[in-house]
Known about the structure:
Layout: E1 9-12, H1 18-29, E2 33-38, H2 41-54, E3 60-64, H3 70-78, E4 85-88, H4 103-131, E5 134-139, H5 152-168, H6 172-175, E6 179-186, H7 192-205, H8 209-218, H9 228-238, E7 250-253
Parallel strand pairs: 1-2, 1-4, 2-3, 4-5, 5-6, 6-7
Helix pairs in contact: 1-2, 1-9, 4-5, 7-8
Amino acid sequence: MDFGINGRWAIVCAASQGLGKGCAVALAREGVNLVINSRRQETLDAVAEELRALDPAIEVRTVAGDIGDPAIREAVLSAPPQVDILVNNNGGPPPGDFRDWERDDWIAALDANMLAPIALIQACVDGMAERGFGRIVNITSSAVKAPIDVLGLSNGARSGLTGFVAGTARQSRLASRNVTINNLMPGAFDTQRLRGGIDKAASKSGRTHDEVAQTRLDAIPARRFGNPEEFGEVCAFLCSRQAAYMTGQNILLDGGAYPGTF
């Protein structure tokens, strides 16, 4: 299927590994020019070369730094000639007990996982509407749908973003101008973050990495972790011309782990 986005320009945040990289790879395969961001320039440059190899016709530009920094956001937004596609992504805040969190912990979580993506959306949507095409995909978390007790910072910040998107995506001046905003909610995907979390759980419980991983797998009807490539392909579909009638939605990718009907 031709997604109809060849030659478009996309910004993909936190694109050096994991789900962000999966999205960048899928878009590159569709012939999309890319501005990719992550904190480390060396890693980012290596990923850029991988993306160029997928389609030598595309252009890939890099901006290293924390997307939560307004100066870095400005540099990212200034890198492409226009922004047709925006993939918001950032690492989640650390787990813990809410009794231990100070105000600064909450502000950091909100800055990274709510306010930074809102600022990027705010900067892009009017230009998208004027040109009659725009796709925004926010990578949030399955914890928005089924909150996890130790991820209170993430639950709060990402739910705030989700509420904002629910209203903004439905503005007629955006939806009627072919600008869509949707959220992708990943469950357990085989990423460095997941493997690190399993290692920590194993260390605390005295079990092996494989034992903890198997416990996680047993709770997933698909009996496997997702892979970033398939996640990226769903993201690419949401950016396609075929997805023009889908906006304000929360798409859960979790192998069936969420047990509810709605």
